[in-house]
Design goal:
Elements lengths: L1 E6 L6 H17 L3 E6 L4 H8 L3 E4 L10 H9 L8 H8 L1 H10 L7 E5 H6 L7 E4 L10 E3 L17 E6 L4 E8 L2 E9 L7 H5 L5 E3 L6 H17 L5 E8 L7 E7 L9 H8 L4 H10 L6
């Protein structure tokens, strides 16, 4: 099969996507596929028309690759592609909308609202501690936690995400993540960091975080995290592979809160989804093969 691998792109997660794409290309070649790597730019349509692939492996992360935009292009070109479709991708990437869907599905979510930069700079918009985040970025890009004494001033350099700002209650506790493949939860990983916050740098820097896989949790908590991840996956209308992030407020109300669902989980050597797949007995190459086997159009 001839597979085009979309990687790079225009988002803040470009470098991570290039690493994911390289790992996927290597796996596809080992599986016997013909591979055409495409660094996604404004010339994407022409590149795909010249390549004429049988399907696309979408290794893009962040805006334009994870939010339904590229998926829409592939739908128009009638090229089957991996991961979630247009609507599910758009819903998951829009954090405020995703939270409404999670809440409607009966999942615990943190109190949140969307405000302007001016409102955040003028005064606290929620009781501290609270979290400031872009409404439509992934991999914790742009996320800041406002503890007592914290200060954050918006500038063009540190906030190139528009005027809309999502603020939400900070949920203390243990950081958990669950990968779901074809509606089946693969396992739960607990993430710990020296800084106490699993930000972009900790996610993609060797030694920045520790992954405890499987997470050492009470069985009821482990099972509940697995259940919630599948509910989130299905409520958004996702397909193929997703990874949902949670906080377990162990010392507080004891509840598990869903933070977000990633429809294009990383495929780098440090990524959580391949690690959880391996725990479930699925090698990296087998995971790539399963994603390719599930490539399709929304229609």
């Amino acid at each position: 099969m001839h597979v085009a691998v979309l990687k790079g792109g225009l988002s803040k997660e470009r470098e991570v996507s290039l690493t994911s794409g390289a790992a996927v290309e290597k796996a596809l070649a080992a599986l016997g596929h013909t591979v055409t790597p495409i660094d996604v730019t404004a010339g994407l349509v022409g590149a795909l028309q010249r390549a004429k692939p049988d399907c696309v492996f979408n290794a893009l992360h962040g805006r334009y690759g994870e939010d339904g935009c590229v998926q829409g292009v592939l739908e128009l070109l009638k090229i089957p592609y991996t991961h979630s479709g247009v609507l599910a991708s758009a819903l998951a990437m829009d954090k405020p909308m995703a939270k409404k869907i999670f809440a409607a599905a009966g999942l615990n979510v943190a109190t949140s609202k969307v405000v302007t930069k001016a409102e955040v700079m003028a005064n606290d918009v929620l009781p501290r501690p609270y979290v400031i985040k872009p409404a439509n970025e992934g991999s914790s890009v742009g996320v800041h936690i406002m503890f007592e004494g914290s200060e954050f001033a918006f500038t063009a350099e540190n906030w190139p995400y528009g005027d809309a700002v999502m603020v939400e209650q900070y949920i203390p506790g243990r950081e958990l993540t669950v990968a779901v493949l074809d509606d089946v939860a693969l396992g739960v990983t607990e993430i710990t960091t020296n800084s106490g916050f699993y930000d972009y740098e900790n996610k993609y820097t060797a030694g920045g975080s520790v992954h405890i896989c499987p997470a050492q949790l009470p069985k009821a908590i482990y099972d509940e995290a697995m259940r919630m991840a599948v509910v989130a996956h299905q409520a958004l209308g996702c397909r193929s592979l997703t990874r949902s992030d949670f906080r377990w407020d162990e010392q507080g109300d004891g509840k598990i809160y869903i933070l977000e669902t990633n429809t294009q989980p990383g495929m780098t050597p440090l990524s959580l989804s391949p690690e959880l797949a391996a725990y479930a007995g699925i090698s990296f190459n087998e995971l790539v093969a399963k994603l390719i086997a599930g490539a399709r159009l929304d229609g």
